[in-house]
Amino acid sequence: MAGFVQQNQLGLTLLRKGSWTEAETEFRKALAEAPQQATFHNNLGVALFEQGRTDAAVVEYQQAIQLNDSDTLFHMNLGDAYHRQGKLNPAIDTYRRVLRDSPGRVGIHVRYINVSFDLGTTDGGVADLEALLKQEKLSGIDGINLVYGAEQAIALAHILHGRYEEAEQHVSRALENLSKVKTESGGYVIPIITPFFFYIQTVPKTQINLDRLYASLYNLRGVSQYRRGRYVQAIDDFKQGIDKAQGGNWNFNLGRVLLDQGNTAEALYHFRRFLETSPNSSISRVYAAIALKMSGQDADAERERQEALAQAQNKINSSLRSNYEYVEALALADQSWGRIDEAIIQYQKVIEVAPHAGWAYKKLAGLYHARGNSELARQMIMKALERLPDDVEVQRLSREIVPSA
Q1: Dmax of the chain from CA atoms?
Q2: How far, in whole angstroms, is CA 24 from its chain's centroid?
Q3: What would the 3-class secondary structure string for 74-131 be?
Q4: Architecture of the CATH domain 333-405
Q5: Which of 41, 238, 292, 390 pairs with 222 at a CA distance of 20 to 30 A?
Q6: 398: Cβ–Cβ under 8 A, 6 or more apart, which residues?
Q7: Is 296 left (phi over 0), alpha (psi -120 to 50) or beta?
Q8: Domain boundary assignment for the chain
Q9: SS3 breakdown of the chain: % helix, strand, coil, rounded to 5?
Q10: What pLDDT, on the 0 to 100 scale, is given for residue 193?
């Protein structure tokens, strides 16, 4: 085997481990021997992107595309870089190219909706995906990826706009339809939506598995339930996801609900489980730090928080609307560390981009009430009551702030 092939393979192994700088070294060695290999440029771009060196990643992705314009993975990765840079129109144009040429490409549908949300054109994005579902008739794995990738993205669009009942109905229909899918021998695990191309791989035909797709759908419905304060139902959905597959977003989201309920030990357990499979998730690391802080482990909490902030540097563009959940995490961290002015600013950012987010109104109501600002506290708690009428904490705060509420 040629040396550059081995160097590329070693680079991929290092990527899987999250060793981005070491992976970069191996890809550069491979490119020194084979500079016309488009895949090597793409892989180097991924290593740079994961280090937060987005401008350099763009150069490598563009070089990969110049060498091989037909690989839609290269285009999708370039779209990710544009999105992080806040170049929303180039990002969505690039994603449209992927949808046109590879409508079953794993991960493209959610990306398309997130950029559409940032542009303020989410309904148009949903219409595009619905049209795609009507036009394209793919078979096998591509067909499943198209249908369920688009279905999940459409449900996400409803959640992003606070249309929770529509989201839950959409996911419930998808779950019912998925139960009718007949898997046949032929060689692929159905992959969960993931930004990392190297998680998608051929496997022996006896390992065909829909469990992670089920788990992803349960997770989406659980997120919707959580967002409107139906915590028992949300926990049930997240646990069903965990029963199907450990270590996914459902672990993280269950941890978040448990943290809200004050169960810091179990919340921390689920954040850790998620970080086992997604060690570079800055948002989960922030919540892990919060759980440690709330349980009195101050030194560990501060160390975790600093690592999370360093990890997110140059990687998460918090000015993008689609990253409001990261801003929520920063707000709760500021509150947990006693930086109340900073927390209020962050919570206000959340409600500016996600006015349906009752959780942020609830937190602001508590902070204003503690400060004795009765008018702002009343305004916030009334907003929270509209959005989270069954939330126990909201009900308690409302009795304190507006006794007649």
Answers
A1: 77
A2: 25
A3: HHHHHHHHHHHHCCHHHHHHHHHHHHHHCCCCCCHHHHHHHHHHHHCCHHHHHHHHHH
A4: Alpha Horseshoe (1.25)
A5: 292
A6: 381, 384, 385, 405
A7: left
A8: 246-315, 333-405
A9: 75, 0, 25
A10: 32
Q: Which class in CATH covers the domain with range 246-315?
A: mainly alpha
3-class SS of residue 188: strand
Over residues 330-342, mean pLDDT = 97
The count of C-alpha atoms lying within 13 angstroms of the C-alpha of 68, restricted to the half-sphere facing its C-beta, is 15
CA distance 292 to 300: 7
Task: Work out the average pLDDT over 23-30.
Answer: 95
Residue 208 has pLDDT above 60, yes or no: no
Tokens of 81: 């870089």
Cα(37)–Cα(44) distance, rounded to whole angstroms? 11
Distant-in-sequence, close-in-space partners of 272: CB < 8 Å, separation ≥ 6: 288
- Please, which pLDDT band fits residue 187 given cuts at 50, 70 and 90? very low
The DSSP line for 317-329 is -TTSGGGHHHHHH
Q: Which amino acid is at 128?
A: D
* End-to-end Cα separation, the chain, in angstroms: 74
